[in-house]
Amino acid sequence: MNIRTPRARIAAPPCLRPALIAFAVVGACSAHAQQSDGSMQLAQNLRAPSLTETVVTATRTAQPLSDLVADVTVLDRETIETSGATGLADVLARVPGIEISRNGGPGTTTSVFLRGAESRFTAVYIDGVRMDSQSTGGAAWESIPLALIDRIEVLRGPAGAVYGSDAMGGVVQIFTKRGENGVAPYVGVGIGTHSTRKLEAGISGASGTIDYALGIAREESKGFNARTIATANPDRDGYESTSANARLGLQINATHRLEGTLLVSDMDSGYDTSPVNDDRNMHKVHALGLNWQAQWTTQYKTRLQVTDSRDKYETKPSIYLSDTHLRGYLFQNEWRQGAHLVTAALERREDNLENAPIDRQRSQNAIALGYGYSAGGHTLQANVRHDSDSEFGGKGTGSLAYGYAFAPQWRATASVGTAFRAPTLYQRFSEYGIGSLNPESSRNVEVGLRWAAGTSSFSATAYRNRVQDLITFGAAGPCPSTFGCYTNTARAEYQGVTLAGSHRLGSVQLRGSIDLQNPRDLATGKQLARRSKRHGTFGADTQVAGWTVGAEVQASGRRFDNAANTNVLGGYALVNLYASTRIARDFTLLARLDNAADKNYELARTYATQGRVAYLGVKWAPQ
C-alpha cells in the first residue's frame, strides 16, 4: 500500500530521579551574582557565551541576547564538534525542550519534537532557506549534514506571526560557515563502531571585498540491524552520506552586500520491510539562497532574498517517489530609531509536490509587521502577519511578548501568540486526502524567569500551547481510499515547564535541563505518541592535564508508541563520555563513548537503537 503516513514523524520520552532534578536546579542556582544582565545564558554551550552575541531567529532581525524575550538556545561549532554526534537530531536531543524519535539507526526516518509538538510543527531553515516536505510534512532531519553546520539557533514556542505557516512549535535555524579574513583550511577524519568512517574538508577566508567558505563531507557505516522482529531482514542497515556546501559573499561597498549559499546532501540508508529485501531509503536535499542586503541610511536597511529548496525521497526495491520543490521570495525592511525597531516584510512561498499520481502546486503571499522596544530594563515585541493561500484563503496570526529586568541579574518574561500550518499537498490530494481540510492552528501562552551572572545561569519557562483542527489519519470517509482518510478531527495540548541552568564549580562546568510536560490528546486525554512526560540532559566537563574531559546523561521517562497508549516504550538513561586535546599545534583529537552502559532502549516500537558505540576523530585546522 502506497500510504506515506510512514516516515511517520512522531517522536520520543523512569529514570529522572530526584537527585538529577536537584542537580539541574540547585546546581544552576547556587552561583554568586556578578554581572548586571538578566538575559538567558546558553546553558547547553560548553563555553560561556557573550551577552553581546546576536541571534536572528526570534524576529528575523539581528538582536543581542540581552534584549531577547523569546526562549532561545544557541549551539556553536565548538559545541557541535565536541558532541561527537552522528546526526543533527542527536545534537538537538541535548537541547532543552527537544525529544527525538528514529526508526532505526542514523539515516532513517527521524522526528524532532519541540515542546512536545508534532515534528511538522517546527519550521526549519538552512542559511535562511526554508526546508519542508509536502508529502510527510516537516524537514528531513536525517538528511541535513551535521558536519557542515557552523551554528544552530533553536527558538522554542510558536512564531507564526514572524514566519507564517509551520512554526507552531518553534523554529530551528541552521547556519553554515562564513569566510573571515585570511585563509582557514581544515581536514578531519574519524572512525567508530559499526565500521563508521567520516571524512570532512573545507576552506574559508576573505580577501578585500570577497569572502568564501567551501566544505565537503562523507560518512559511511555498516550499521546494525534496525528491526527487532522476525518478519524483517536480519541484515545490517548501514548508510552512506555525501554532502557539500558553498557560501560566497561580495561586499559591494560599505552599505551593500550580495551573498549566495548552497547546501546539498545525498543520503542512502537501509531499512527493513520484508525478510528478504535489502530495502533502501534514498534521500536528496538541497538549499539554495541569494541575498542582497542594503543599509540605505543609519536607520533604514533592507534584505531581498530568493530561495530554492528540494526534498526528494525514494525507496528501493519497493518503488516510491516523493519530490517536494519550494521557492521563496522575501523583502524585509528594518527601521531603527533609538530604542525602537519597526519591521515590515513581504513574502511569497511556492510549493510543488510530485508524488504519483499527485502533481500539484500552491502559493502563499504574506505581509508581516513588527515592532520592538528595548530600554530601561523593558523589552516589548509585537508582531502581526496575514498569509493568503491560493488553496484555502487567508489566515492571520499575531504575537505579543514583554520582558522586564527587575533586578541586575533577573528578568521576567511573558508572551502570547498564534500560529498555523497549512495542510500538505499530500494530505489534500492523495487518495487518502480531503481537499477541504482546514489549516491546523494554535494558541500559545508562556511565562519565564531568567537569571544570569558570570558563567552561571538559570531559566524556568512555563507554557501551554493548544492546537485546533489537528490533522490525523483516521477511518475511511469521504476520501477515495477505503483504508482511511486524513481529517481535521483532533485537538491537542502541549503544556509543560522547562528548567535549564549552568554553573562553574571550581574547575568543573556543570549544565543541565529538565522538561516536565504533558503532551496530550484533548479528546481522549491520552498521552501523545512517542513523547514522554519528563526528559532531561545533565553534563559536566573540566580540564585535566591538557585534556577537556566530560560526561553527560540523557534521560527520558516512559512513552507510548500509539495513540491508544497500549504499546509502552520504557524510560531510559544514557551515559555519554568524551575527551579532546590538542596533540600538535594544528591537530585536535576527539574521543567519545556513547551509551557507555550499553543500555537497551527503543525510540520507536520494533526498531533497534545503537548500543555502546565509540568514536575517535582527528582534525587539522591551522591556527
Short description:
The chain has helices spanning 18-29, 77-83, 88-92, 160-163, 425-429, and strands at 54-55, 63-64, 71-75, 98-102, 110-114, 122-126, 129-131, 151-156, 170-175, 182-192, 196-207, 210-224, 237-251, 256-271, 279-295, 300-316, 320-337, 340-355, 358-375, 378-389, 393-407, 410-421, 440-453, 456-474, 485-505, 508-517, 520-521, 534-544, 547-556, 559-560, 568-569, 572-584, 587-594, 613-620. The protein is mainly β and 623 residues long.
Fold blueprint:
Blueprint: H1 18-29, E1 54-55, E2 63-64, E3 71-75, H2 77-83, H3 88-92, E4 98-102, E5 110-114, E6 122-126, E7 129-131, E8 151-156, H4 160-163, E9 170-175, E10 182-192, E11 196-207, E12 210-224, E13 237-251, E14 256-271, E15 279-295, E16 300-316, E17 320-337, E18 340-355, E19 358-375, E20 378-389, E21 393-407, E22 410-421, H5 425-429, E23 440-453, E24 456-474, E25 485-505, E26 508-517, E27 520-521, E28 534-544, E29 547-556, E30 559-560, E31 568-569, E32 572-584, E33 587-594, E34 613-620
Parallel strand pairs: 6-9
Antiparallel strand pairs: 1-2, 3-8, 4-5, 6-7, 8-9, 10-11, 10-34, 11-12, 12-13, 13-14, 14-15, 15-16, 16-17, 17-18, 18-19, 19-20, 20-21, 21-22, 22-23, 23-24, 24-25, 25-26, 25-27, 26-28, 28-29, 29-32, 30-31, 32-33, 33-34
